[in-house]
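Just wondering, does anyone understand what follows?

——
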Amino acid sequence: MPRDKISACVIAFNEEHKIRRCLQSLTWCDELVVVDSFSTDRTVEICRTFTDRVYQREWLGYVGQRNTVRELAQHPWILFLDSDEEVSPGLREEILAAFERGHDGIVGYEFPRQVYYLGRWIRHGEWYPDVKLRLFRKECGRTEGQEPHDKVVVHGPILRLKNAIWHYTYDDLRDHFETLNRFSSITAQQKFVQGGRYRWRDLLFRPPLRFLRGYFLRAGFLDGVHGFIIALASACGAYMKYAKLWELTLRERRPFTDLPEG
């Protein structure tokens, strides 16, 4: 019996320096579908050298965009990959072997994601194994979650594979902290809209607890200086999120409309 067919689905925006590696790692799939958010660089041009299934859609958020590309896929299995990720050779072979054996009721597969950060692979802390459910039967799953942290939810049994997606994350520290700034704004705004309000204990305790969890409890210290920077940056991200929630709450109570005299 032929194995079930897989649609690889990628969302992209201005990723000309990373998208080729991503798409090259998906050429073994039966279909490749890309949804681009009107990139202004060569992203679309590069994508069209791999597939004619390239679409441009307005940005709907991570959840909306992933569900959009899912609907465009034609095959019964969906494999999500970000434009700065790569399916490792080991994971590719493990997936193909699983599909050759048959699924025995399994409707989703999850696997670790390993990050390449500032010149080295990260093997500890909050960033590893960072298990993601990215391969699933289309009819049994869809993307849910709160922006900017989307997740695939499936209805049925899942199986964890051993090999990893490789994630080529931030280009440098500036890129890292710019992303933290952007994501903390999105998270604080969404929390505020949903009725969340500032609590002093969140701002006081959550950042240091985030550092302790990543650096000590999850053994981030084993990654040396890289592990320290990652744990500290995660704590800073938590601080920014709750500080921005405080600012939104303050604006609601006392709009910043008064200008200083003189």
Summary: DSSP finds seven helices and 13 strands in the chain.
